[in-house]
């Protein structure tokens, strides 16, 4: 995106704490994949299968594992974890622009809001009463920061983020466009056939280093809070119901939905389009594969799955018809077994 | 959220039409769960399993059923439906702030729009030509009210709601941030390999007391209207296709999607992540469980389900492999039965 | 929506290049379905099953296939493809309002942005540095056009569209409210238990005539670009991960999600709520039915399906229990077969 800023390999290796083999005076300005890299590019080899691309790369330098170094025609940065070092190097070359404190004249900021002088409030953004915005915070264009929200230092609201009333945002939190944090959860009592809304007076609390994807929705708690713990990463178009709790460093891929009051532990991975019922307990280190249908608690670590992978439709129609007969088929099998035994 | 306003138990019981047992001069200011309630809190017991929490609560008063009253150390409000009475009491203690009529100076309102003097148009909101906004309506920050929209009395557009052209909104409707009502539906004709858009000239009509969740999308009709009837409650991240009709008091949980021209009856509940094909007829009183795949009409009331609940992945892989062989397994079973019979 | 503009059947037939049978001086002003049409309405018969409605219609004219012409009481426009001709006629009667060049005074446009004098920038829209907006482009209210974006001629950003940095938009592209194009994709490296974000420096490129639905999200590429080719139509609430490629004229229905680096060919149709894993290759002419779970590549054209259609819950519970025993059932069947053979 932004043109990278030039840095010498020597400075980069020192920054990243990795070994440089080759000319430290060579400078790189941006990252690129091996096959498309130019001499001003830094690239990386994360998977040995691409070693032939390595041998022919025009990159100015490559991050790779020790065993691959000899195959590279360019200077190398050697590490046991090339992907992680590449992540850091790429951020070094393509940093977010520095946050310059101030309030755009088109923003509408309530007099009672407390904006740190080192925070930026972008154009056409609304900051409501009693909100607090910490140092180094970037609030992009078109955001809404509701009454009483608190945003911790160095967090980024990229653009068009909606924080409803009272949302508590930690430090270095990254909120993507269109996410809606803290809307009133889906809670109703029945009065005959009619639904009566139950006021939702809890809040949403996001820990440090949390990330929330584009157009994702996180509902506020009914009475207690909805909590997303430090380091959790939530992708796009995800629904998190009221009073859910997501543990530290748990990652959820796009299109998943979690019903109210379900608690997910630490270091879990939830693949795309997973659905979870409410009031479940998911332990630490649980992994659900894509489109899993989670209808009970899974307290133990492990990998869990469900769903039928796609197949040719004609074949699928036959299997589905048999699925509906499964109970009958099982009974018939039992009958056959009994008959055989009797003979 | 907002600090509650104090009210005596005597006044509250009269308001709610329930029996008070205890000191009517005691005042409460907010709601809380039994275990965290302070003496200024109103709490409730909805489920007898929590009776031990009731016995130890510090709440100033508790809403509960007649049979539980003797176990409560505090004054009680007695009712056969504690959850419903709690919903009403909570709204009494935590009301929406009153709507003060006016237009924020940063809003952009077309000269031909008709805004009731008792309606509020919030900051950075756009109201287009010929739109009508009724008395007591709250249009929060960052909304777009398209040309020719009509919004009935006392409706709330919380924030960042988009009403496309011509949307008809009933009274006391609640629209959450990010919802998009009335975009042109997904209708195309084929011209060889190319798709040609079919103009969508119908509207969306939302009945009284409808609620639409955050980032939900409701498409406008192709020629006739898309209709959501009075009292229907639609959660977050739901897609409602063009020309769908949703019956009165039907509730849909998050992440569901309904294809075009499907009609759902009254008093249905659609759990999370349900998918429905188009042109179906779903009767009154139909209930779909989470992630149900609805590919045919269900005219009769009842509970319907589909999907395979998650299980350990190794076990799942074996079952899936067998699923693909189901038709063959059924044929082999039949063969075995025939052989046995022949013996 | 907008009142149509009157046109005579003679002019309409000439415009559309179809045969008129009847009085060419008759004028129509809007489209309607056969059963509700008034004499100023144009209607169409796309499906012969509705022929009885045709015989009783009050429409001023009807578009239909040659074999149906004799059954119509009104003048007819005759074509082999009534639905396609109707699409074009409806656009002729209900055109988008012409785009009048200019910038609304409430918009915030960076000095370095290049706005064609024939483009419209709507109220409360932000256009950031170095963005380019072509002739005839309509940017509706509340949009954000990020730094360095390029928008081709005659594209429409209906309202509240977010283009992140560097998005390349072709000509005649239609972007619906709430879509977020070009957010940083979901890419992380692991540092022990913590996730480290990998900067996403690719872009999103949308070809000519692409359409993106409401609240849909398209992530930008990690290093290379995410690409949606000309004529592709993407519905609401869809997630397209980083580095995906969608082929020409492929259509995707609402609520689907595609994980990163998956490539879909030309002329595919993806029904609603389909989930696709990452790094797959889907060929040209592939069709997935609703809620399909796509976990492997499908290079060959064809129709593919998965999922269990909804059934009464009691029946479903029994079938699911048996599903978990499937591997055991298959082994028992094999055992029975072997025993029989041995007898």
From TrEMBL, chains A, B, C:
SUPFAM superfamilies per record: Trimeric LpxA-like enzymes
Pfam families cross-referenced by the UniProt entry: LpxD
Keywords associated with the record: Acyltransferase, Lipid A biosynthesis, Lipid biosynthesis, Lipid metabolism, Repeat, Transferase
GO terms, molecular function: N-acyltransferase activity; UDP-3-O-[(3R)-3-hydroxyacyl]-glucosamine N-acyltransferase activity
Enzyme active site: 242
Top-rank taxon, per record: Bacteria
Subunit structure: Homotrimer.
Function: Catalyzes the N-acylation of UDP-3-O-acylglucosamine using 3-hydroxyacyl-ACP as the acyl donor. Is involved in the biosynthesis of lipid A, a phosphorylated glycolipid that anchors the lipopolysaccharide to the outer membrane of the cell.
Protein name from the UniProt record: UDP-3-O-acylglucosamine N-acyltransferase
Originating organism: Thioflavicoccus mobilis 8321
Name of the gene this protein is made from: lpxD
